[in-house]
Amino acid sequence: MRFLRSRVCIPWLRKKRGAVFIFLLCFAMPARAEYRLDVGDVIEISVLGVPELRQRVPVQLDGSISYPLLGSFAVSGLSPSEVRAKIQAILPTKVFRQRAPDGRESVVVIEPDQVTVGVVEYRPIYVNGDVSKPGEQPYRPRMTVRQAVALSGGYDIMRFRTNNNAFLESSDFRSEYESLWTEFVKEQAHVWRLRTELGGTDTLDQTILREAPIAPSVLLQIAHLEDEKLKSRQTEYDREKAFLQSAIKQTDTQIAVLSDQLQQEEQGVKEDTQDLQRITELLGKGSVTVPRLTDARRALLLSSTRKLQTTAQLMFQRRQRQDTARQLERLDDQRKVALLNELQDAGVKINQIRAKLQGVAEKIQFTGLIRSQLVRGSGGKPEIAVVRSGPTGRERFIAEEDTELQPGDVVEVALRAGDAAVPAQ
Predict the structure, then answer these.
(1) Spatial contact of 92 and 114, defined as CB atoms under 8 Å apart
(2) Better pLDDT: 215 or 304
(3) pTM
(4) 399 and 315 in a common domain
(5) What is the rounded CA–CA span in Å between residue 261 and residue 250?
(6) Out of 199-203, 264-268, 301-305, 381-385, which region has the weakest mean confidence (pLDDT)?
(7) Under a CB-based contact definition with an 8 Å cutoff, are residues 319 and 312 in contact?
């Protein structure tokens, strides 16, 4: 009998001890602070039986909300229950007219227990640092740092890298690097050719050729092509200049011939004029006939016409000679201006290529670091800090992956990877 009594009492004692333990545990756990509304939250206010008064209202920048019959009032810093109590105290004192389907209006009396208030959208959180997709994330109740990092794509020490394979990217960047170097050397050779055409005695910078990661055969080909361009353009310039000089000489010869012809024509006009005067005097004495006078006049008119034609041809040749001489003078000036403009453009292009080379070199270093991390593993434990708005302002504290977040928190993630070798540029 004693044995049976002990068998019955043991389970009862165990149940009593478990209940006492749970009671003490609940008493020892601190009560969770009630959520406080702030700018960015969206709450839903509804009145049972009055669907017209069910609305979602965001907390404005000034910490207030706007609701029918109540207008605007501040809610920032209040809990949803405090907002509900505030609305329950004011809304029943207002008169709300509800329109029936048949068009009639009726006065609705709102009871306090008909009003409900709940948060439907919390302020977003922000994740920054060594994650794949830093930025804004929607908040969910009891959300942890681990969940926020998962939504941000997970940890990533090289968050600025692209989504492509780092090994393939490195090959692409090196190819682009060598291509830019080729363009750089070509522009340097271009500048050398332009300065030589301008009358300079510059030589191609051998230091640049030695530093360029380009095959010697390619460098020789670039130099050879620029040298051929130089010879071709110089030959074309000399040919154009010789043509203009030859045209000037031909014009000078024609001017000399026309000048002699004009002198002869002037002498002929002078003789014909004297002959006409003599025949006119003889006609007055009756020694010659009228037809003889007419022939003298015709001869004077013909010689004067030839003189005018020769004078016009001489003026045309002189004007053409001036135009050709001016064109010869402009040939050098225009060539110089064109070469200077081309030289300026080449200098700008060299600076652009130099900047691109610097950028691609940094990308090569960066992808080399990524490759090193991929080979060695990212390593290191994440260092997590949370910045949270509190009663005294924004506070920053160290957190763990299982730390629960609050709306509006800013999560900062930093990974400390092992030593990574940076490839030489």
Answers:
(1) no
(2) 304
(3) 0.41
(4) no
(5) 17
(6) 199-203
(7) no
